[in-house]
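Can't paste images in this forum, so I'm doing it all in text. The chain is below; anyone willing to post the predicted structure tokens underneath?
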Amino acid sequence: MIATPDLTAASWRKSTYSDGNGGACVEVSDDFTGIVPVRDSKVTDGPAVVFGGAAWSTFVSTL
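Text version of the structure:
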């Protein structure tokens, strides 16, 4: 299990895999080594899911 880092100072960007119509928008942070925090852009103060770098690479390579 990956420990959740402090994400309060994270820089977020809209994922290139997000829906361009303003609906299903996923944001990711590139600020952390070895992990990729992911959140819903419509709920910026909500929780984030934290993927290990290898798991994230596997996930996006299947899209």
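The radius of gyration is 11 Å. DSSP finds one helix and four strands in the chain.
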